[in-house]
Design brief:
By secondary structure, the chain is mostly beta strands. It is built from four helices and 20 strands. The chain is globular and about 65 Å long.
C-alpha cells in the first residue's frame, strides 16, 4: 500500500538530512518553508515521486503582433530514489506534450523572444517545451557529517546556471506563461548534454557544469546531438528555512541556431523567499537579475519580481513584474523597413496578475479555474509595431495539479468545493 504523503514527506531526506523538498529543477534549491505539489509513494525500498501541471487555456494577445490560441501547456515529472553506496541515487524523467498541444510554433506571448520556427526567429510567442524535458540521474553522498558530494548526468537536463526554472518555482508554479526574460535567466533548463559536480553543506552548495550551450532545435520530439561545449558555475546559500540565494556565471557556445558564430556570457543572481500560510497555504516570492553579453552587442539585462500566495485549499493569487532589455534582433525588428539596427536596445516591461479558484478535488489532485491579465509596456519607438505603448494580453484557463501534502489530510474521493455540492460529505 502506498505510504501517505504526509508520512512520507516526514521521512524524505537527502544526505546530510536535507529535506528532499528543497530540490527544485535540475540541482537547484528552493526554501525549505515552501514546497511544490507532488505525490510520494513507496515501491519496496524505492521512493517514487510524481509531479506536474496541466493548463488548458484560451490565450489572447492584442495588437498587430498579437494572436489568439486555444491549447494546453503541460508537463509531468517522475523520480525514483534509492539508497546506494552510503548515498542516495535518483533517476528522473520529465515529459511534455507541448509540441502537440500548442504546436511547434508555441503560444502567443507579446514581447517574448528566443529559438526558431521554420527557420525564422520566434517573436511574440513562447516556444514549446521539448517532449523530453529531462532524462537524467543524480547521486549524492556524504563525505563527512557536514559535507556532501553530488554528481548529476543527463542526456537532457539542466546545468548549474540561473535560478530555479520558472515551472518549478513556488512563486510561479500556477502562472501559465514563461517570463519575458526566460532567455536571460533559466532557458538552459533543457540542455541536451549535462554533467554537473557539486559540494554542499547544510546551507551552502557550490556546483560546476559542462553542458550543451545550443538551444533545442525545432524537432521537439527527439534528443538533439549531445555536446559538452559550454560551462557554468553556481553558488547557492540557504541561510534559513525561508530563504534561498544563488548567483552563477556561464559561457554558452552558439546558443541560437540562426547565429552560430555568436556565443554568450551570462551572469545571474536570484533570491527566493517563502513562508507557510496556515495549514494549507504558502506565500512564495522571487527576485531575479541576469545579464547576457554577446560579441558585437551591448550587454542586456533583465529584472523579475514574482509572487504567489496559496491562500487556502481553494484560492490562489499570483503576479509577476518584469523589466527586460531586448535588441531589435531579439524582437525580429531589425530591417530596412523599421530602420532599427540589429544591436538597438529597447527597454520593455510587463505586469501580470492572476487568480485561480479550485472547484474540484480528488484524493491526489485538484482542478481550478483561473484567469490572468498582462499589461505590457513598450517605448515610443515601438508603438507603431505593437499598436500601443501598453498592449494587453489575457488568459482564461483550467489548471490540474497534484495536491500539496498538507491538502491530502483526510482526503478520500472526489468532491466539489463549496456548500452547494459535495460528493464526499465525510471529508468535511
Amino acid at each position: 500500500m502506498p505510504m501517505p504523503d504526509t508520512a512520507k514527506r516526514a521521512m524524505s531526506s537527502t544526505p546530510l538530512g536535507l529535506p528532499m523538498d528543497r530540490m527544485g529543477s535540475g540541482t537547484t534549491w528552493i526554501p525549505d518553508a515552501v514546497s511544490l505539489p507532488a505525490r510520494h509513494f513507496m515501491a519496496g525500498s524505492w521512493e517514487l515521486m510524481l509531479h506536474g501541471f496541466v493548463f488548458v487555456e484560451e490565450d489572447r494577445q492584442g495588437g498587430p503582433r498579437g494572436a489568439s490560441q486555444f491549447g494546453s501547456l503541460n508537463w509531468g515529472m517522475f523520480m525514483a530514489s534509492h539508497d546506494l553506496a552510503s548515498g542516495r541515487f535518483q533517476a528522473r524523467t520529465m515529459l511534455s506534450l507541448d509540441p502537440a498541444t500548442v504546436t511547434n510554433q508555441g503560444y502567443p506571448l507579446l514581447l517574448q523572444s528566443g529559438e526558431t520556427y521554420r527557420g525564422q526567429p520566434l517573436h511574440d510567442r513562447q516556444h514549446p517545451h521539448d517532449f523530453l524535458m529531462e532524462l537524467g540521474a543524480l547521486y549524492e553522498r556524504p563525505i563527512s557529517k557536514t559535507l556532501g558530494l553530488s554528481l548529476y548526468a543527463a542526456p537532457s537536463g539542466e546545468p548549474a546556471l540561473g535560478p530555479v526554472a520558472f515551472m518549478h518555482r513556488p512563486s510561479a508554479m500556477d502562472n501559465p506563461t514563461a517570463p519575458l526574460g526566460h532567455h536571460w535567466q533559466d532557458a538552459t533548463h533543457i540542455a541536451f548534454g549535462v554533467l554537473t559536480a557539486g559540494l554542499f553543506t547544510h546551507s551552502l552548495k557550490f556546483e560546476g557544469s559542462v553542458f550543451n550551450g545550443r538551444d533545442p532545435d525545432e524537432n521537439r520530439w527527439d534528443i538533439d546531438p549531445i555536446r559538452l561545449d559550454s560551462y557554468s558555475g553556481r553558488l547557492t546559500f540557504n541561510p534559513s528555512a525561508n530563504w534561498s540565494l544563488s548567483a552563477g556565471y556561464g559561457f554558452l557556445k552558439s546558443p541560437e541556431a540562426l547565429y552560430p558564430n555568436e556565443s554568450m556570457h551570462r551572469v545571474t543572481a536570484s533570491a527566493l523567499q517563502g513562508v507557510k500560510l496556515g495549514m494549507n497555504g504558502q506565500w512564495a516570492n522571487t527576485l531575479v537579475w541576469s545579464a547576457n553579453t554577446e560579441p558585437g552587442f551591448p550587454t542586456t539585462q533583465s529584472f523579475l519580481v514574482e509572487s504567489e500566495a496559496v491562500l487556502s485549499r481553494s484560492h490562489t493569487v499570483f503576479g509577476r513584474a518584469e523589466l527586460v532589455q531586448k535588441t531589435a534582433q531579439d524582437l525580429a525588428l531589425s530591417s530596412p523597413t523599421t530602420g532599427f539596427a540589429s544591436d538597438r536596445v529597447f527597454n520593455i516591461g510587463a505586469l501580470s496578475l492572476g487568480y485561480i479558484a479550485d472547484f474540484m478535488r480528488w484524493s491526489g489532485a485538484t482542478l481550478g479555474l483561473g484567469a490572468m491579465g498582462t499589461l505590457n509596456v513598450v517605448p515610443r519607438d515601438l508603438q507603431s509595431s505593437y499598436g500601443s505603448r501598453t498592449p494587453l494580453g489575457g488568459w482564461i484557463f483550467l489548471r490540474l495539479r497534484p495536491l500539496h501534502s498538507a491538502e491530502t489530510t483526510n482526503m478520500g474521493g472526489m468532491h466539489m468545493d463549496g456548500d452547494a455540492f459535495d460528493l464526499a460529505p465525510s471529508m468535511r
